[in-house]
Write a structure and sequence with these properties.
The protein is mainly β and 135 residues long. Helix content is 5%, strand content 44%. The longest helix is centred in the N-terminal third of the chain and has 7 residues.
């Protein structure tokens, strides 16, 4: 899966001098999304690895156009997000938007997959993997 990370925008206050003074957070970077796939139902913990993260920063994360319902900056190099649900399987971009208007786009970063046919919680109820579960 090809991944490309690029700065989408850095918009500060409308005045040019204020934008130059505030600038982009040059220490902030996104390096990876892990794991790079998850189920359509979402609700899975996904780590975004990078640098320059701050626990006090305002940040939103989008998988395609769907906003992650929960984002927690766990350290200067990692944040954990809860994946949102998706309507169909496939690859989506991941966009990280800071509250100062800066956005980072990680192209083709996450793949939605259908839920696997077996739930590991069912293993304790079966004598064999070939045995059908009892209703």
């Amino acid at each position: 899966m090809k991944k490309s990370i690029r700065l989408v925008s850095c918009v500060g206050i409308a005045f040019v001098f204020a934008v130059l003074a505030a600038g982009c957070n040059e220490n902030f970077s996104i390096k990876d999304v892990s794991p790079a796939s998850g189920v359509l139902a979402g609700n899975e913990p996904i780590k975004i690895i990078g640098s320059g993260f701050d626990k006090d920063m305002g940040v939103s994360v989008y998988f395609g156009n769907a906003k992650a319902p929960n984002v927690v900056v766990t350290g200067t190099g990692e944040m954990t997000v809860t994946s949102p649900s998706a309507d169909e399987e496939g690859v989506v971009d991941v966009r990280v938007a800071l509250d100062n208007g800066t956005e980072y786009l990680i192209e083709n970063a996450f793949r939605y997959i259908p839920k696997s046919g077996m739930d590991i919680r069912d293993l304790g109820q079966r004598k064999s993997l070939r045995e059908e579960p009892k209703e």
